[in-house]
Amino acid sequence: MEQITVLKHHVLDAPLGHGAVLFAVVVIFVFVYKVRGYKLSRSFTKETQVTTRTDIPFIKGLPEIPGALPLVGHLLQLGDDHATVCEKWWRQYNHSVYQIRLGNTRAVVVNSFADCKKMLVGNSQALIDRPTLFTFHGVISSTKGFTIGSSPWDDSCRNKRKAASTTLNKAMMKNYYPMFDLESYCILRDLHRDSEDGEIEVSVRPYIQRYALNTTLTLCYGIRMDEVYDTLLREILHVGSAISLLRSASENYQDYIPLLRYLPNNEKNARSKDLRDRRDKYLDELLNKVREMIEKGTDKPCISAAILKDQESRLTGVEVGSICLSLVSGGFETIPGTLVSCIGSLATAAGQKFQDRAYEDIKHHHPDLKAAWASEFEREDVPYLNAIVREAGRYYTVSSMSLPRKTVSEVVWNGAVIPKKTMVLINAQAGNHGSIDLTHPHDRFD
Fold it and tell me: 17, 34, 51: which is the final residue of a domain?
């Protein structure tokens, strides 16, 4: 009954009457599923099989989590925290890699650090593709295209990934040092000002959000926002965060239960379209600002300006928009969360010793602290400081289940053959927080 209550909550995103009808249909199917161990007629059994069919047939040799229901599969059992439940199943059934059913979609889940590494590194080319989902790809991204991380693999996706990697590779980082220096300075400047030299308590998160967004805006559009609570800045952050939530499987049953998509007055679709329109509006506004700066001769080197002036003609306008959208959307989701988590941990009583150790290591490698402030972010030669940065990235998992992947070819896993076009879910939270052999704990990040 608890699972039925969860489903009712999701179904009633639709109008009451339609949701109630669908809810009743699902309850009937659940009942059929529970009693199908009895002697049923052969035709009735075939009808129940239709409700358990998935895009990919059962994968022989790979464990499947028990308890899947007709139509919904394991969605109800997964609840609102898929990563934690998947990790619990790993511990409970002693299988790090297994298969589950998300409605009509079969997915392979990978949990342990060793298996995540083996799957991602050993099968990188086979997992290069991405599945297309109804809400994110079909509704939200129907006007401006997909982000790089969510784009299905094709020639266009290859071009976008190549351009993005060229723009963001280590050799190019030196070109962005002035930008990092300015945005870092503005964090400290404004925290000092707004807190009245530490007398007033302020949240550091908005300042870090501005840092993250300004770095990507500068790179993509050659513009930045000086105010922490700039209206456009807050709109970008709000819409981007709301869209990220809609990409979650726990928020989008209609991605896996097609029947939900066609209910009249679908509130999920309406919300997605509203967010899409708001995102399109600020993306157009940013690009128009670049056009205005080009006309006035005040534009700065950036991806958009280069394309508009045909300096990067190998990419289409849609592909450029996708790259800019990816950087703008991805930057403010990953950097603020990781930095706030790190700063919060270091600010605790237990974290003070790590601050002290890092400070001592900085002084050891840079006797002149002013020189360290000016150049350390370029050299990155303080081992303990580097270890803290890497540990922050491991400890705070930005996307607990990572972005879903899709196989472009068969993957052989311990004798089992994972077919082409199978969804693969990497449980980054479980992998990051699993048992890892630290040869040098607290000294360096191995």
Answer: 51
Whether residue 163 is found in the same domain as residue 27: no
| Contacts for 290 with CB less than 8 Å, ≥ 6 apart | 221, 222, 223, 299, 302, 304, 305, 308
By the 8 A CB rule, do 254 and 268 touch?
A: yes
User: Under a CB-based contact definition with an 8 Å cutoff, are residues 115 and 108 in contact?
Assistant: no
How many folded domains does the chain comprise? 2
Domain that holds residue 304: 155-331
Residue 381 pLDDT greater than 70, yes or no: yes
Separation between Cα atoms, residue 375 and residue 378, nearest integer Å = 5
Cα 261 from chain centroid?
Answer: 23
pLDDT tens digit sequence for 242-276:
888 777 777 789 999 999 988 888 888 899 999 99
User: Among residues 53, 94, 48, which one has the least CA distance to residue 73?
Assistant: 53
pLDDT tens for 326-363 read 888 777 778 888 999 999 999 999 999 999 999 999 99
Tell me if 267 sits within 8 A of 251, measured CB to CB. Answer: no
Closest Cα to residue 183, out of 148, 207, 159, 147? Answer: 207
